[in-house]
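---------- Forwarded message ----------

FYI, see the ABC transporter substrate-binding protein record below. Original note from H. follows.
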Amino acid sequence: MPRTAPLIALALGATLLAGCGSAVTPNASPDTAQAVTITNCDRQISVPSTPAAAVGLSPSQTELLLRLGLADKLVGQAQTDTAPLPADVAAQAAAVPVLSESGPPSREQLLNVKPDFVFSPTMYEFTAEQGFAGLDQLAQAGVTAYIATGGCAQRRMTGTVEDIFTDLDNLGRIFAVPDRAGTLIAQSRASLSEVDAAIAGRAKPTVAQVYLEGTTVTAIGAGIEYDIIRRAGGNNVFSPQDPRFAKFFAAQITPEALAAADPQAIVFAVNSPEHEQATRDYLTRTFPNVTAVREGRLIAIDAADTYPGTLGNVSVVREIAQQLHPGAFAS
């Protein structure tokens, strides 16, 4: 997946084919684990013992494993060019083999490092037709495959920010680190509660969330991204009730459709400073009379913070809320 087409392209492929600033937990030997059985994407997963050789199939998943203190168990990381690891954990992954840079690793690349656990943001990374290791192939090799809850095909339209808590709870059980997982959950819930308290009773500005590639505008109307805006105190102008988003969380729209919605704020996902500047330039040039542009409410967020299975889903809520509701948060 090229850096210029992150989550939207990945999610489209997955559907068609199938840090919140928390402290990093120091590495330590986890508690002794017994066999664990969980439900993931409507599949029963049985893990006979604590995994010892894990692979994060995207930076978001690698980051979460690092924040759980599992650096010594990582034998591979993938899609490293799609998003940088946060600075506070990047050094821990410096010696972890890179299996792929711009897309998922091939079946051979993944199995060559002999993993016993792989953690993916979506089902797409397990598409055998694309040359990736399929779920059945991984099972035959004795590898447990776990998909971020918000990235499950059946969850993509209704995913929420709090899906990350399901992942943390499951990973805490699988790797026998429930206390570490519990700490991250508690910190994240506290962050969301602070936002709730800060924006309580405030009027909700209308918000359009978009992603631009050149002059192609894709709008978000459902899923985790939709819930992020809701949690940040925004009123989405696009929603699942809109026919364009009744079956899929994202849809290409015309410039006229965005102008007609006239949002008070526009949130747009970017994957580089150059992409941010290009998007700002396009929005400013194309929509000078839209309220969001006229009032200077163009809010850039890191595309990686919208990926399923990342603590960025929590931190970006506060980031957006602070710009939608200036003055609501103590300095």
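H. also flagged this: The CA atoms of residues 232 and 318 lie 6 Å apart.
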